[in-house]
From TrEMBL:
It catalyses: L-histidinol phosphate + H2O = L-histidinol + phosphate. The lineage of its organism: Eukaryota, Fungi, Dikarya, Ascomycota, Pezizomycotina. Pfam families: PHP (PF02811). This is Histidinol-phosphatase. The keyword Signal does not apply.
Length: 314
């Protein structure tokens, strides 16, 4: 079986994604996906959380629409889950943000409805400033965190640890996103910075994820964005495996054109690490829920070989 645990659509992430959610579902079916995790971005709460394209023409209107849009997304996700149940196993989730600790209670509230199967725990910020939007904002984040990349990496992994402790996500999104716009995205941080302080924070976070049973996603979006390795990079992935960690698999697609992008490269990368299987979730009754009771979820392993054979892509 083939799957993604991280996906977006232009319908519910307008501005930086494309296509209607139903069209994404139909395309995923056409290329061999048997499980599709829907994970549109959670609503944010302050004007300062908005990205530049959301500030015009009316930032207050941009902010006000986020929570109603999330409710509309959940209704549409449940409709699609039922409609396409004979063809694909749809999991309903969202991508949690961690801009500040106050997001912890909000993530838990958003995860409470019976229709929600899981959420992704992600950081796109350091010191409250986006790190993956553009290089100008990356530089602002670096300066706000101490004016060096070492200081920003340390801040990022400390804030990530706050998130991990606060909400314990089953899926940890793009663990080392911080390297995307780095001056040296391929740098080895285990021996590349003084006293190894950043690396110890990385190891702390990885150990915590393993301890509560979370998964890191092998996220192939890093490859389409020009990095040589998926998230997480080899150094982090090897340490996670050494600690006993398990991977899920994601394209982090933002529309039809990105569904399964670089999947064969990503699978090959995992094989080069010695990984033989990836993990996903399966509802014990699907579609729908039993009243207000969440559907029980079963962890399901998929061999790399079986995953590759299921994909109808070159």
């Amino acid at each position: 079986m083939a799957f993604t645990m991280h996906s977006h659509s232009g319908q519910f992430c307008p501005g930086h994604a494309k296509d209607q959610l139903e069209e994404v579902v139909k395309h995923a079916i056409s290329i061999g996906y048997t499980t599709l995790g829907l994970t549109e971005h959670m609503p944010r709460t302050e004007l300062s959380d908005l990205y530049p394209e959301e500030l015009t023409p009316d930032p207050h209107a941009s902010l006000a629409v986020l929570l109603p849009r999330h409710a509309t997304y959940l209704a549409e996700a449940q409709r699609l889950q039922t409609l396409y149940a004979p063809q694909i196993h749809i999991l309903i989730g969202f991508e949690g943000e961690w801009i500040r600790p106050a997001f912890g209670p909000l993530i838990k509230e958003l995860a409470a409805p019976a229709c929600i199967d899981y959420f992704i725990g992600s950081l796109h910020h350091a010191g409250g400033i986006p790190i993956d939007f553009d290089r100008a904002m990356y530089a602002q984040a670096r300066d706000a965190c101490g004016r060096t990349e070492e200081a920003m990496y340390a801040r990022y992994y400390d804030e990530q640890f706050e998130m991990l402790q606060g909400v314990r996500p089953k899926v940890v999104g793009h663990f080392d996103l911080i390297r995307l716009m780095s001056e040296e995205p391929g740098r080895r941080i285990s021996d590349g910075w003084a006293e190894g302080k950043v690396w110890e924070k990385v190891r702390r976070n990885l150990g915590f994820v393993v301890g509560y049973g979370g998964w890191l996603e092998c996220n192939t979006s890093a490859l389409r964005k020009g990095l040589e390795e998926p998230y997480p990079g080899r150094e982090v992935a090897e340490e996670f495996l050494r600690l006993g960690g398990r991977f899920t698999f994601s394209d982090d697609s933002h529309g039809i054109a990105q569904v399964s992008t670089n999947y064969l490269r990503g699978l090959g990368y995992l094989e080069s690490l010695g990984v033989k299987e990836v993990w996903t979730l399966q509802r014990s009754f699907h579609p729908g829920t039993d009243g207000d009771v969440k559907s029980p979820l079963v962890e399901k392993s998929v061999t790399i070989e079986g995953f590759r054979k299921a994909l109808k892509v070159k």
